[in-house]
Amino acid sequence: MGKIIAIGCIFLLGFLGFAQEIEEGFPWNEDIRLTWADFKGKVPPGEESAATTASGISYTYSANLLHHEVNLDFEVNAYFYPNESWYRPELCNENTLAHEQLHFDITEVFARKMREKLRRTSFSDDVKAEVRKIYSDILRELQTYQERYDWETNFSRNREKQLEWNQKIAEALKNEAKG
């Protein structure tokens, strides 16, 4: 088996996740918080939501066979996509922004889960399919988790639940290995 290199991307738009090619984005960074200036997309016609955060997980990897063992080199990152993220200033405040930031933070938690899963997996010579399955499983979990977050917090309007989620994700970021 020679060297295999692959790249995968998925982008979550609001609470409806779907894959789409989007060019410019920036990676999650614990020292940088989103501002409304980062939301550069246009509100879609007929859209009633206050804001949408477009974020996703991308990965690259290379695999080498060494002494009948697959050695995987990989990079996994959470990204925010400004041109696909938007907000309605008249409906948004700092609580809304904090809610949207947490969507991006949740994406980082799942990027870390994917890194950990890739580290712990012993791959066969069908590494491409195995990595794709891990990615697909992580994205499915991420989408379900993002939807649950929106529904439990009522899209940031339930302040008590929002505070619970803020704490839950802060702990997850502290406890999940950065990788």
- Annotation, overall tally of beta strands: 7
Number of helices: 3
- The sequence of SSEs as H and E is EEEEEEEHHH
Percent range of helical residues = 25-40%
Radius of gyration: 17 Å
Q: What portion of residues belong to β-strands?
A: 15-25%
Shape: elongated
Mean pLDDT: 87
Strand order of the largest sheet: 2-1-5-6-3
Alpha-carbon distance between the termini? 26 Å
Give the low-pLDDT segments. 1-22
For the report, how would you describe the main beta sheet? 5 strands, antiparallel
Q: Structural class of the helices, strands and pairings?
A: alpha+beta
InterPro entries: DUF922
Protein name: DUF922 domain-containing protein
Pfam families: DUF922 (PF06037)
Q: TL;DR of this structure?
A:
The protein is α+β, with helices and mostly antiparallel strands and 179 residues long.
Outline the structure in words.
- The protein is an alpha+beta fold and 179 residues long.
- The protein is built from three helices and seven strands, in the order βββββββααα.
- The chain has helices spanning 94-120, 127-153, 159-175; strands at 4-13, 16-18, 26-27, 51-52, 54-66, 69-80, 86-87.
- The protein has a five-stranded antiparallel β-sheet.
- Helix 1 (94-120) runs antiparallel to helix 2 (127-153) and helix 1 (94-120) packs parallel to helix 3.
State the main characteristics.
single chain; 179 residues; alpha+beta; five-stranded antiparallel sheet; two-stranded antiparallel sheet; 3 helices; DUF922
Q: Helix and strand layout, with pairings?
A:
Elements: E1 4-13, E2 16-18, E3 26-27, E4 51-52, E5 54-66, E6 69-80, E7 86-87, H1 94-120, H2 127-153, H3 159-175
Antiparallel strand pairs: 1-2, 1-5, 3-6, 4-7, 5-6
Helix pairs in contact: 1-2, 1-3
